[in-house]
């Protein structure tokens, strides 16, 4: 039976000192058909371990529901890691940050305002206990000694950057042990004295997160973890992107030199990320340090393996560095080949508002409810009320989370954007139905705004008078069947949003594709019913990644929800991704 432990200054595997050379791959950001390919490419680069977070809110989208299907099959992912001859590190949170919606915490948990966030508040602890028991029941039998790949489990995530509730960390640690986890437990914190102090307990092995100045950062870590192996649990080899900003890249030779310095210092490492993947659907998080900044759909991260699983210059540079420390397999992964490039027309369309009734149930209420209060935790909601104004009037909303299209009747009169701190708009003299189509653009994943509700936050007033008699509809987009039934031939060029449109395209064989969205406005795309995520003129990303596994030889269906306006009704696939402009 294999053993893994901490002894002296080392991790020890089967009695021998062992250096962890790990790379992060989030199973929930990669199509399951691609898991083995990505994991194998990690081994071919010289890594011996795969690290993943576990996103609680994806596994439990509503209280009591538990989803481990498809992209969420953690047990299967860990078995693929074993099959590829690698070890695994699991970081179940409950908070994971990760540029993931709400940092992985389920939004439904916070509809009760008494529930604490990331602290030893009894209601939060009760929910976390149930979650951890469930996840760790998957992980425990896949620990190394049991024939699985798991050698480390992390408690919380960068907790010292958020709180200092040691009782909370004690409860999580005891729960983890009580759930049968026997491998060493770690914590990770940014290498600052207060964070390393607040984020851990004496019986947890402290590690650090950073992407440069390794020697200095390891010295800081050493002050707080005087014994045992040094480990950088998140070596930031790239960075994430926000809509409206530039695409982040780091020079591969500089990043490789930083990695070499870390390994020269004798440390173990987890590359964050080895392969970032995609924020499919509505899974992206957001930042807010005074300005709300949602994360883009691609989680390419400028990682060694790109979003489509192809090796980059960084991959080859890291492989050369790793060759100085370990024996590498002879095999190397193939270089990227161009994806099929072609166009197809959008042929059918239907305005969102004309199918709204088929996508959810209306609720009538005098008080303005949040989306969360309606049990709707992602995507879109429609708010309607009747207005009658003879003079230009000011519509004012307490706060828009996160973007509202304002329509009177079917006429689009403006958009309120949270990232611009918009909260008021002038309405021309009008009479009829006022509609606000509100998009949750992703919940904040870092800092004090975690757990805040989405939708319209009141009061909503018209010339100072509070609006009431609201009809509110959570827009259900899990099935597009009601939209398909309503499509009619598209008879004019251009898409006047908010509108669904559809087209089909033929493929000789399934292949990874890059959908060029640069001619469209803002919206969401599905191919064969699979939600590929959001696009937006603001960029930086201009293409959406389509994994080969969601298309097939023959006819394929594309549905787009265009919210704004698109002069183009053409579907365009291009040979290579365009993640946008960089700042150098
Ligand atoms: C921190 C978090 C990660 C991720 C990175 C930035 O290290 O622990 O989850 O958010 O920052 O990509």
From TrEMBL:
Keywords: Glycosidase, Hydrolase
One Gene Ontology molecular-function label: beta-galactosidase activity
Domain Beta-galactosidase 1-like first all-beta, first and last residues per copy: 370-475
Superkingdom, natural source: Bacteria
Listed GO biological process terms: carbohydrate metabolic process
PROSITE patterns: GLYCOSYL_HYDROL_F35 (PS01182)
Pfam families reported for this sequence: BetaGal_ABD_1 (PF21317), BetaGal_gal-bd (PF21467), Glyco_hydro_35 (PF01301)
This protein's record includes keyword Transit peptide: no
Active site residues according to the UniProt entry: 158 (proton donor), 234 (nucleophile)
InterPro entries for the chain: B-gal_1-like, BetaGal1-like_ABD1, BetaGal_gal-bd, Galactose-bd-like_sf, GH, Gly_Hdrlase_35_cat, Glyco_hydro_35_CS, Glycoside_Hdrlase_35
Domain Glycoside hydrolase 35 catalytic per the UniProt entry, residue ranges: 11-324
UniProt domain Beta-galactosidase galactose-binding: residue ranges: 498-556
Family assignment from sequence similarity: Belongs to the glycosyl hydrolase 35 family.
PANTHER family found in the cross-reference section: BETA-GALACTOSIDASE RELATED
Protein name: Beta-galactosidase
Organism listed in the record: Leifsonia poae
